[in-house]
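A further point concerns the way the authors explain their paired sequence and structure data. For illustration, here is how one protein appears when written out as sequence plus structure tokens:
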Amino acid sequence: MPDQAATPKFRRRAEARPDEVLDAALRLFTEKGYARTTMEQVAREAGISKGAVYLYFPSKAALLEGLVQRAISPFAAAAVQGLEGYRGDPRPVIRRVLTMIVAQATAPQALAVPQMVIREAVHVPEIAQMYRDNVLDRVIPALTRLIAQGVEGGHIRDVDPELTVRSVVGPIMVHVALAEVFGIQPAGGLAMDRLVENHLTILFAGLEPEKGRA
């Protein structure tokens, strides 16, 4: 009589395989670079056949999209959900979103994806487009609307919403770029939590409503 316990074990293994392929791809993209990594190498790193890789991911671009959707897209969706429909002072919401970024950055696999994007997007345009489609084109408009309603309600000073969003996210992106592209880090490492707190102190002081405005 066949061992019935073997069936769920096999099923768990099959369900875990896409994540194993993504883990292998991320290691190789990080070590070798996206352009220099082949599907054959990903298969070998994952310990499966090339044909098995193609069952889950039909191309290297699909691997990249899978990494973005696994690590970043859930965060982007949660951030947008928290921004939509909000009315009031945008500063507590901005703090919550940037705190979410810090929490996300504590997971090495999650942080590795934007690090790879920053390193390689200039040389591989499809990486930049993938990240824009899955993350930036969802989060930036929501942040812009958040800032705009804050200005209209008199909760913050009269600033340009689109440019202010760049001021909100720009320091974090530059912070990571300085480390990943130029190898320049603060003495304590990336220290994303301290960077965000320092950034918010400066940002919120600049957004304080002008005196006398209702």
